[in-house]
Amino acid sequence: MMRHVIGKSLVLGLVAIGVGCSTVRQARQAQEEARASVASAPDRPPVPLNGTLAELVDFALTNRPSVLSARLAVTDARLRMKEIAANAPVLSSTPWNAADFSVGGGYSESSVGEHLSDFDFTTKRGKATGSLSLDLLVYDFGRNAAEARAQADRVIAAEMSLQECEYTVFREVVAGVASLREALVFRLVAETNAVAAAAHLEQVRLRESEGEAKKLDVLKAELTLAQAVESLVGASNDVVTAGANLVQAAGGGPLGLENLGSGREIASEWGHLVSVSSDDIIQLVETNAPAMRVARARARAASADVDRAIADLYPTLSASASFSWTDPLWYLRWGVNAAQSLFTGFRKTTAVDRSVVALQSAVATFNETSLNVRHDLDLALAARENAAEMMRTAMDTRRTAEENLALVDEQYRIGEANRVDYADALKAVAEARGAQAKAEAAALRAEATIYQVLGLAPEYL
Known about the structure:
This protein is of the alpha+beta class. It has one domain: Outer membrane efflux proteins (OEP) (Up-down Bundle), CATH 1.20.1600. It is 67% helix and 10% strand. It has a four-stranded antiparallel sheet with strand order 1-2-3-4, with helices on one face. A hairpin with a 2-residue loop joins strand 3 and strand 4. The radius of gyration is 37 Å and the shape is elongated.
């Protein structure tokens, strides 16, 4: 019987050693990959500007380091949950996890005791030794259960933090796309203004040569052209800056200037939030907002930490069994053990007080998060309404400007309008397009914030 028990224990030990070796191999591989990653600058893929907005967001969620860190935090929280379950006592919902098996063996030699004057290192006899032990936690007065409850809520908090991070990346990508589109349109406006200013200067110079204009008029036209060119340079710089910000938001590689064309490469669709009442929005914020769910889970975890600190005031009950062999003798021992600390310098009672303070702090953080989320939602809703009004005004202005351009173009062909009139009409159309692009960008940013705050999936993704 004893040989059968020893044989099964040795098999279990070999299995455990095999699992440990596999874990070590994976850990060493991770170390090598980490060393290679930090040894040189990362090679990041280029941002897919020719894709849709959904593809840009997917690219960012794949390549942004912040998202990877949040995912690793979720993995770590789940592993910690597994670690806690491995410490569960027998009297729990997950028994037999806290069993600790160990096996040991060795060989030793010793010399026969002699008088000091006759001492030498001659070996007289060698012995082999072996041992097999089992330690099992029986009951811990709810420590492990409380810790498991706290960690379960920390897993939820980590998962919600990952979702919040993904929404943040989504909002930043949308804002980057909106800013780039806006910058591209305003660069086109600046180019149109520069063309119009050059045409005006040419017309003034012609009139000066014919005696119909003064030198001062020419100087003013030259100044207007210089200012238009300066605005064009600034608009071009804004395009480069917006492109760089989009690259950072997407987590991609370098963005070449040749990729920043007319703006047709950027997806032009933008979503419309389903109309809901104020009460429904407030309900969504309280129940579905990722930030609220994170704060609520952390408050529950803090409450479970109070249970854990209280349970730590009570004793522990454990059982142990061991088998040892020293040639030619063997021993089998078993027993139970109950331990209760009588005085620990008020450390355990202070831990309970600290857990209560941590719980109160978590509740205060939850209330503060609720205020901040409601405030962010109010601002985003107001910004979206303002953007919608700007959009309607800009579209009306653009329609009027395009009708005026068509009329001036017809007059220009029959000789009733000059180049300056045509350039001014073209400038008005370009500025109306710029105002519309600005309104669309504001609407995109506002809606991205609303989706992030409410924790809803955008319709256009």
